[in-house]
Amino acid sequence: MIIRFRPGTPPARVQELREKIETSGSRTVLSPEPARPLLAVVDKLSSELREVVEACPDVESTVQPPGAWRMVDRRFRENPSTVKVGDVEIGGGKVVVCAGPCSVDPLLDEAAAMVSQAGGHLLRGGAFKPRTSPWSFQGFGVEGLRLLKDAGQKYGMPVVSEVMDAAQLPAFKDHDIDCLQIGARNMQNFTLLKAVAEAGAPVLLKRGLSATVHEWLYSAEYLAAFGCSDIILCERGIRTFENATRNTLDLTILPLLREWTHLPVMVDPSHAAGIASLIPTLSRASIAAGADGIAVEVHPDPSVARSDAEQALGSGELATIVAEARIQAAVTGRGLHT
Ligand code: PEP
Ligand code: MN
After folding, report:
1. Is the shortest distance between the CB of 207 and ligand 1 below 6 Å?
2. How far apart are the first and last CA of the chain?
3. Which of 164, 188, 268, 307 best tests ligand 1's pocket when mutated (most atoms within 8 Å of CB)?
């Protein structure tokens, strides 16, 4: 249950009701927004206590989220939340483009130059790679983080990279990686979610390969419950019966997420389609459906890319995607991040 107090309710009266609920054994969380206190009650209340809450003159209304999540629920905030990755704000009404190679490789500098020249805002690149086959390139590891951060600083872009194991977190901190990506394969690695939440950096939480929206939001709730206040969701396609494309891009859930959660949402059409030629159209569709940003893979020479070469865009295509993102953002009453 989320309790919505009347605007201006004195903190002492909020605290009074909160203590009553907690004494009954139910945990509560107070929303960080000061103007209107919103109190999330984690556990089910007895019918007597429910009546006390509903009769309280300071309580304007109570709502029940569609799932058992609380902190990421739309009604737990007055306004949708925004996340700052370096100086780039996500969810604040300006559409953001995140781009870079699937894996950090020797051509990273050229890839970063491409992203910067095309007008991208965030530089992505995997240093630790979750590969289906153990014989596939596993990533440059810590050296990859160093190369990524250097390129980000050289071209003036905050960087995003996937963390696969809590033991890697000190290296992400040492290299000041601006945003930690939780990959699709780790969306329900709850030990990792807790550790990443406690690390204190913004998190890009990708949707699991076969995860329902409920499961995805529970994973986001794990991050929030363990201390992460900067969560970005990223739809990246789900596994369906369709095998003409790598995955199926599920844009249906974008307007649903707007109703269910206050978190900003990005879309990664690269891992959804798996085919470079489809990505410009899917990028436009993602922004039209309300995405706060897109994340795409690029490479200066896909023939030598160490992973996901088939979905890598060239520099001209990326520039077109950014130009079209500007138009789509304007059409949907927003703008492109500067
Ligand atoms: C990636 O971003 O390169 C990646 C592996 O993504 P996903 O976890 O969505 O498959
Ligand atoms: Mn990839």
Report:
1. no
2. 39
3. 268
What's the token pair of residue 337?
């991040």
pTM above 0.90, yes or no: yes
The answer, yes or no, to whether any atom of ligand 1 lies below 6 A from the CB of 130, is yes
CB 58 within 8 A of CB 81: no
- Domain 83-336: give its CATH superfamily: Aldolase class I (3.20.20.70)
pLDDT grade, residue 279 (50/70/90)? very high
- Four-way CATH pick for 2-64: 3.40.50.1380, 3.40.640.10, 3.30.70.1140, 3.40.50.150: 3.30.70.1140
Ligand 1 atom having least distance to the Cα of 184: 8
Confidence (pLDDT) at 34:
79
Q: Which of 128, 132, 129, 126 is nearest to 100 (CA)?
A: 126
Q: Is 95 left (phi over 0), alpha (psi -120 to 50) or beta?
A: beta
Contacts of 277 (CB under 8 A, 6+ apart): none
